């Protein structure tokens, strides 16, 4: 059955929870949906060690937030390294909230990603923000010091610390304890919580001097089970959001989220490629390929790749200005004495254009301009091992013009156009 995306988007904007679920599923599958997000939701990451009371606190906060506010809750559970499945225990704890019209809850698995989040989580945040959620709570796995990717997604990070000894807080410090905006002594109904509170206050006092921004980390005592301190915590969360808006810093987390989304989507594509290329695994096991060689083949790096298309020009500075007016990124000119040219690179989505201006009238580029005028001078392929590829070229009966020499970005050599249907082909091995 086909899905009308436009109709689905309208329903999502109206907080249709079934439509939200469908759109998140599409996004999880890698289908790009034109959301046109404008950052307005308060994305709140809640992290801390296992058993610190994250689910209980979210449950209590969600019940206290006014019902005219739209609330989204994403709970992340660890994936099994054996089956890939996940036991969504956090969702079970908050089952009662699913019946409330203003609350949407979705459980997700880490899919084995180190750092606590995966591409699907970011996709879900994007959809929920488009849906107009006022609060988006993300409960992380709480796997320890590596569970820190949340800092690239959330506007505000709550780090929950249950009653612990000072030594245990010190052990957490190098990971979770450095990313928090609000540190929550959870389960503060416990008698030993006061000691944990004092230890956290001492730690935060030292960190305030390091953070260097207008928001200083705060420590609060809360009991999610009994509701103690939750109202104060919600006020602090709203204060934090206003501070971000007033200081124009709300866009920072949106930028970092998009960059993380790119990285995690790349991991997702790589994981799918690994599943499809079982043949490479077999060759590694049998010893036919080293792990490094197999990895390069997986990424397509064992084959020559288009590095750039070179264009000969008479006025390099004037050409650079034209490309920059088109909104393209162009490098500053570099002189390559060995090739007798001044060079600039124009970056495109998947390759580059090299602009060449001759340094003297006797260079090959100057002679090209004299005989043919401005235009495409050569095509360049990137190879991993220039010497090995030269052997392949010679075995094919093609003619190499001279020996490898220094180019703008590494070693280069050319295949004579008479042996390749009139095309001047450059081979490039980039510097390590």
UniProtKB/TrEMBL annotation:
GO terms for molecular function: GTP binding; GTPase activity; kinase activity. InterPro entries: AAA+_ATPase, Glyas_Bleomycin-R_OHBP_Dase, GTPase/Isobutyryl-CoA_mutase, GTPase_ArgK, MeMalonyl-CoA_epimerase, P-loop_NTPase, VOC_core. It comes from the Archaea. The keyword GTP-binding applies. Residues 305-430 form the VOC domain. Keywords: Chaperone, GTP-binding, Hydrolase, Kinase, Nucleotide-binding, Transferase. Signal peptide: none annotated. The keyword Kinase applies. CDD domains: MMCE. Belongs to the methylmalonyl-CoA epimerase family. PANTHER family: LAO_AO TRANSPORT SYSTEM ATPASE, LYSINE/ARGININE/ORNITHINE TRANSPORT SYSTEM KINASE. NCBIfam families: lao, metmalonyl_epim. This is Periplasmic protein kinase ArgK and related GTPase of G3E family.
């Amino acid at each position: 059955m086909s899905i009308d995306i436009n109709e689905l988007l309208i329903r999502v904007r109206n907080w249709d929870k079934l439509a939200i679920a469908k759109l998140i599923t599409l996004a999880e599958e890698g289908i790009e949906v034109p959301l046109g997000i404008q950052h307005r939701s308060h994305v709140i990451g809640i992290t801390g060690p296992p058993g610190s009371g994250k689910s209980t606190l979210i449950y209590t906060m969600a019940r206290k937030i006014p019902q005219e506010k739209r609330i989204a809750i994403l709970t992340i559970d660890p994936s099994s390294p054996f089956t890939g499945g996940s036991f969504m225990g956090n969702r079970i704890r908050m089952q009662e909230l699913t019946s409330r019209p203003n609350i949407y809850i979705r459980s997700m698995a880490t899919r084995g990603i180190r750092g606590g989040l995966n591409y699907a989580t970011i996709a879900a945040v994007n959809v929920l923000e488009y849906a107009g959620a006022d609060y988006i709570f993300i409960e992380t796995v709480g796997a320890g010091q590596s569970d820190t990717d949340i800092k690239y997604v959330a506007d505000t990070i709550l780090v929950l610390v249950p009653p612990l000894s000072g030594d245990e807080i010190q052990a957490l410090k190098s990971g979770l304890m450095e990313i928090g905006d609000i540190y929550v002594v959870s389960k503060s109904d416990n008698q030993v919580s006061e000691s944990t509170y004092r230890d956290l206050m001492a730690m935060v006092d030292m960190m305030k001097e390091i953070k260097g921004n207008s928001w200083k980390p705060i420590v609060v005592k809360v009991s999610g089970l009994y509701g103690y301190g939750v109202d104060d915590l919600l006020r602090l969360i709203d204060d934090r959001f206003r501070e971000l808006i007033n200081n124009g810093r709300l866009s920072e987390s949106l930028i970092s989220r998009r960059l993380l989304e790119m990285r995690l989507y790349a991991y997702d594509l790589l994981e799918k490629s690994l599943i499809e290329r079982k043949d490479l695994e077999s060759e590694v096991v049998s010893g036919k390929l080293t792990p490094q060689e197999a990895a390069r083949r997986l990424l397509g790096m064992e084959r020559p790749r288009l590095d750039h298309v070179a264009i000969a020009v008479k006025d390099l500075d004037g050409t650079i200005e034209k490309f920059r007016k088109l909104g393209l990124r162009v490098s500053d000119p570099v002189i390559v004495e060995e090739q007798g040219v001044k060079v600039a690179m124009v970056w495109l989505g998947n390759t580059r254009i090299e602009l060449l201006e001759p340094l003297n009238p006797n260079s090959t580029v100057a002679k090209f301009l004299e005989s043919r005028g401005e235009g495409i001078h050569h095509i360049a392929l990137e190879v991993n091992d220039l010497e090995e590829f030269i052997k392949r070229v010679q075995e094919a009966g093609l003619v190499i013009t001279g020996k490898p020499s220094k180019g703008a970005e590494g070693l280069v050599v050319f295949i004579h156009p008479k042996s390749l249907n009139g095309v001047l082909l450059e081979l490039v091995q980039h510097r390590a």
